[in-house]
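Retro notes (design track)

What went well: tokenization of the new backbones is finally stable.
What didn't: we kept losing track of which sequence belonged to which structure.
Fix going forward: every design gets posted as structure first, then sequence, in one message. First example under the new rule, 240 residues:
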């Protein structure tokens, strides 16, 4: 049984997979979740092939029962939670006057509602870890779009601004409980989610998923006296 454990939503690729790999390399027992079982199993197999301790549970972050089952499975496997990385999310571009209710609901559900419910489910274990060592961590994946709304990504921008606000509120409610809450706000990261922009922004000009993973590792190395509300990641020449 690992001495520390982490749960990463949206862990089957991109940023989530990079965070999972980094924490597993640091000795954490890791649970990754994703909505596609085949893709999730492939990611878990990749990490296990590197000798890393990984548990995987398929879950739709829009489904409350599946979120609860995810955390129950993690608890059964590891018995503790020291890091919750709320990384699952989706971005759908639409002109404002053409916003469809279905795509609106998908983004609200995956990016904000699911993150809120996951935090609710994880807090009891995180509080236990915080009382033990004073440095439990909730890392919430926001976006630079949550700091400055982007045209044609209005709903996505709104959900990510909500993530920033929810992170701030969570930190206030967790005051004195040994839990740090940080909103991670990157610009374009080279992941499958940013394929739509590659004709305008080359992959080599994008932030690396490993950059975000290193930020999570950094947060865990800071002292309990140090709280970092958010980290903004920009590319050279990119304004916030």
């Amino acid at each position: 049984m690992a001495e520390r454990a982490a749960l990463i939503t949206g862990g089957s690729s991109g940023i989530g997979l990079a965070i999972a790999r980094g924490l597993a390399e640091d000795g954490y027992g890791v649970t990754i979740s994703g909505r596609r079982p085949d893709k999730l199993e492939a990611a878990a197999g990749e990490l296990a092939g590197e000798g890393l301790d990984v548990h995987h549970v398929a879950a739709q972050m829009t489904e409350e029962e599946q979120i609860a089952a995810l955390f129950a499975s993690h608890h059964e496997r590891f018995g503790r939670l020291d890091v919750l990385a709320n990384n699952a999310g989706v971005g759908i571009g639409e002109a404002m006057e053409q916003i469809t209710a279905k795509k609106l609901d998908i983004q609200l559900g995956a990016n904000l509602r699911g993150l809120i419910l996951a935090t609710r489910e994880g807090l009891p274990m995180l509080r236990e870890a915080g009382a033990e060592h004073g440095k439990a961590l909730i890392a919430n994946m926001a976006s630079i779009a949550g700091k400055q709304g982007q045209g044609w990504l209005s709903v996505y921008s709104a959900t990510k601004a909500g993530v920033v606000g929810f992170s701030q509120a969570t930190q206030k409610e967790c005051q004195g409980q040994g839990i740090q809450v940080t909103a991670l706000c990157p610009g374009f990261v080279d992941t499958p989610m940013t394929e739509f922009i590659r004709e305008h922004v080359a992959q080599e000009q994008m932030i690396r998923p490993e950059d975000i993973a290193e930020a999570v590792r950094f947060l865990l190395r800071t002292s309990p006296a140090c709280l970092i509300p958010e980290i903004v990641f920009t590319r050279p020449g990119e304004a916030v």
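Added context from the reviewer: Strands lie at 5-8, 29-34, 54-58, 83-86, 136-141, 179-186, 230-233.
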